[in-house]
Amino acid sequence: MAAQIISGKALAAQIKRRAAEEAAQLKEQGINPCLAVMLVGNDPASEVYVRGKQNDCHECGIESRLVRMGESASQAEVLEQLSLLASDPSVHGVLVQLPLPAHIDEQAVIAAIPPEKDVDGFTPVNVGRLAIGQPCFLPCTPAGCIEMLKAAGAPIEGRRAVVVGRSNIVGKPAALLLLRENATVTVCHSRTKDLAKICAEADILVAAIGKAKFITGGMVKPGAAVIDVGINRGADGRLCGDVDFEAAAEKAAFITPVPGGVGLMTRAMLLCNTVQAARMAAGR
Description:
The chain is α/β, with parallel strands linked by helices. It has helices at 8-28, 44-60, 75-87, 106-111, 124-132, 140-152, 171-180, 195-199, 245-249, 262-281; strands at 4-5, 34-40, 63-69, 93-96, 160-164, 184-188, 204-207, 225-228, 232-233, 239-240, 254-255. A six-stranded parallel β-sheet has the order 1-11-8-7-5-6. A three-stranded parallel β-sheet has the order 3-2-4, with helices on both faces. The protein is globular and about 50 Å long.
């Protein structure tokens, strides 16, 4: 079986065009969508991610503001800066780039972002709304996974979905979104017994654990849809996902590549959330 590759590049481009069109419409009404990103410290990977987000905003006509704070910034200083962004009516989306320096309480900082500006979908309010089925900002990576499944025509309703990984950023919200789409969901983690057997029973397999090529071909059910969220460096130094792509692609019906898959969708969904925040702030 030759799997259909679900291109994040092609789908993200479509979503970005839609975000650009909506941003242009809002500008015609005097509303300038704005995303503020707070970068604390000097993490090289974070620098790359933030630069990519700024470029995306520029392409779509969304204003991008970068607030830099040094590695030694105190938690009080970070929270003070967040308060300024929270009260600024010209800022519609607020994102704090993770990870934060070790001396800063990450959860306290996330909780300080106003839910109506939480375009990452990380605050307790938005997570709670997601859990009980209320309207909210969807976390970007899991939302991108669902969009990829739908775009490929992979059935979700009534299917058995297995999510490998239980992080607050991907694993748990991915499970909630799959439940919302009426899948039957199992969440696996480091303490799960018979992991390979459970994965091999999945119609939809989402890998989000951060271990290079952890999901082998033997863990993939023939005809499954495989969504690879991982971004790792393989033994050869090249980027790879949590899934052994070549082996899994021989059995799956649908599969996402790394690079060129979920990562691009994460950034595209952030733009959608930012435009939505601007629209909500204007009462549209």
